[in-house]
Amino acid sequence: MDPTRDNPLIRIKAFFDGLGILTFFGVLLLLVLGIAAAFGLFRKGEDPEDVAGKIRYETKSEIDEAQAAVLTPEQISSAIEETGKTLAASKPVAIEKPEQLVPGSVTAIKIANAPADDYSAIDAAPADPAAPIDPAQMEIGKVQFLVCSACHGQNGEGGSIAPPLAGSEWVTGPISNLIKIQLRGLLGPITVAGVDYNFPAPMAAMAYQTDEQIAGVLTYIRNSFGNNAHAVKPEHVAAMRGEVGKPAATVEELTKP
Ligand code: HEC
């Protein structure tokens, strides 16, 4: 047997050598675990929804803070209330001028594609031009004329905001012109009985009236204030309802009386 082997000093050295090697690997293991932990290898898989949610809440609180610095909650709710009221009270407005048409809009396309309307049948002389005027129609017309008289005068004499209806060649002329003016309104300038008129405000459409009311008021103005012309029938008005919604008519769109 090798006597050196039994040397206790050698045994102690071997023990400490072993301990050193173990310590070395232990430290190495700790180092590796430490690095792995630093890179998050041991972290349990976090729910991606939780991660995203956290970011969202952070963003929301940032926005809330920024808004709170600018607007008070009272200001925000009163703004919402105001807008709501305005929207509730707003109504679609009829198109009065061609410039108000939005190019490419549904209405613009509808108007551009509409075939040129032929109202010659409506304007044709009636079978019996001298047929007496129905008093019931004149009654309806007289009531409707109250509105017209505000601008055109009680006796159709005209005034500072509208031309005369008395002695107007337009009033006793083709009835499709008159129906068109009722359904679409009228945008001057216009010459009536040799006088040129160009009022600041156009005449608004009065398409809210029924066919009977429009036929009545037109028959009334054609047979009052010294005017005399055959009656307008409700079916004439009905045949022209397609005009409603078009911009206010101009003189170029009317048939020369
Ligand atoms: C708010 C004022 C106003 C009212 C209400 C009004 N018009 Fe007019 N009317 C005008 C104006 C203005 C013109 C001329 C267009 C222009 O200058 O832009 C006109 C033109 C006319 C014309 C063609 C020109 C002429 O003098 O012959 C007739 C017809 C007419 N209106 C009939 C009527 C009838 C019928 C009513 C009632 C159902 C009526 N208007 C209601 C303002 C009005």
Summarize the SSE layout with pairings:
Layout: H1 8-38, H2 48-70, H3 73-89, H4 106-113, H5 120-123, H6 135-152, H7 169-172, H8 175-184, E1 186-187, E2 190-192, E3 195-197, H9 211-222, H10 234-239, E4 249-250
Parallel strand pairs: 1-4
Antiparallel strand pairs: 2-3
Helix pairs in contact: 6-9
What does this structure look like?
There is one protein chain. The chain is mainly alpha-helical and 257 residues long. The protein folds into 2 domains: 84 residues, no CATH class; 155 residues, Cytochrome c-like domain (Cytochrome Bc1 Complex, Chain D, domain 2), CATH 1.10.760.10. Helix content is 52%, strand content 4%. A hairpin with a 2-residue loop joins strand 2 and strand 3.
Global structural class: mainly alpha
- The count of domains is 2
Output the strand order for the largest sheet.
1-4
Mean pLDDT over all positions: 89
* CATH C-level name of the largest domain: Mainly Alpha
Uncertain regions spanning at least 5 consecutive residues: none
Helix content percent band? 40-55%
N-to-C SSE string, H for helix and E for strand: HHHHHHHHEEEHHE
Keywords for this entry:
257 residues; two-stranded parallel ribbon; two-stranded antiparallel ribbon; binds heme C; 10 helices; 52% helix
In short:
With 257 residues, the protein is mainly alpha-helical. It has two domains: 3-86, no CATH class; 99-253, Cytochrome c-like domain (Cytochrome Bc1 Complex, Chain D, domain 2, Orthogonal Bundle), CATH 1.10.760.10.
